[in-house]
Prior knowledge:
The structure is a single chain. A hairpin with a 2-residue loop joins strand 9 and strand 10. The chain has a five-stranded antiparallel beta sheet with strand order 7-3-10-9-8, with helices on both faces. A three-stranded antiparallel beta sheet has the order 4-5-6. Strands 1-2 form a two-stranded antiparallel ribbon. The chain has helices at about 1-15, 20-25, 30-45, 60-70, 80-90, 95-110, 165-180, 195-210, 220-225, 230-240, 245-255, 305-320, and strands at about 50, 60, 115-120, 125-135, 140-145, 150-155, 215-220, 260-265, 275-285, 290-300. By secondary structure, the chain is of the alpha+beta class.
Amino acid sequence: xxxxxxxxxxxxxxxxxxxxxxxTASGIGVSSAxxxxxxxxxxxxxxxxxxxxxxxxxxxxxxxxxxxDHLASPGRLDHVSQQRIGxxxxxxxxxxxxxxxxxxxxxxQLTRSAAVVLGxxxxxxxxxxxxxxxxxxxxxxxxxxxxxGAVDSEVIELPADTSDxxxxxxxxxxxxxxxxxxxxxxxxxADTGDASVDAVCAAATHxxxxxxxxxxxxxxGASTVAQAFDAVxxxxxxxxxxxxxxxxxxxxxxxxxxGMSVAIGVEHGVEPLSACSVVVAxxxxxxxxxxxxxxxxxxxxxxxxxxxxxxxxxxxxxxRLGEG
Length: 324
């Protein structure tokens, strides 16, 4: 009970917690002297730390872990937040990338933490259509629309004297050949027999070859999480790490793959983020894991709120993706 009271108070105030304050907390019912002795024992066992000799105690990563695993009551979103999430996904239309980007912003606002959304990998997404839009005499934009609503575009170089009819024919050929197939099937497509059309298709195959493997990752609320830290160096490390897409993707995927929902401090293994905790959840559509979402904040984050929010948003995002 004393550990739980310290954690809750520190999450709320970010100030070291003294025995006098804990004595007034509900569910304690013992003297300040007893509380001081128990807090000293908790410190000795590694659950609390005393940043300064005359200061109160703060939870350690071990203390937060015990709190999350044993003491924290399951969080429940208030009606306003649930309504806000419901309204958001009811109105979420248009490009998949835009919805995922706005989902990260919503998650960041609800939790007051940085939010990460990993969208479905396009390597397995069926292609709906391919079109070419000329932007110069020797260049065009290849636009790929996927069945899941995602859209990718890539600028390609055109052979000299490529006509507009050849561009249209190339788009029609790729659309017909790839219907219901992933973009990775580009490599095995047969030629049309028209040298000009085949040249456009070859240029598109070369330019689009890497697109299917790209990660759709969206990070929102980075500036919000920066405000949670006093040390400038910690802020710098956190912001720099969040800018590295590969690190963020690997971090979230590793936590999900380990079957964890919460990684506290050094548990996630990313040293520049050792002052942070991460709460994650997979996005599941028809039993298939198609993406992940998570929030990243200081180790003193509100874990019950973060867990409840991530759970609700991942469920609604999965349902929305399932609707196409």
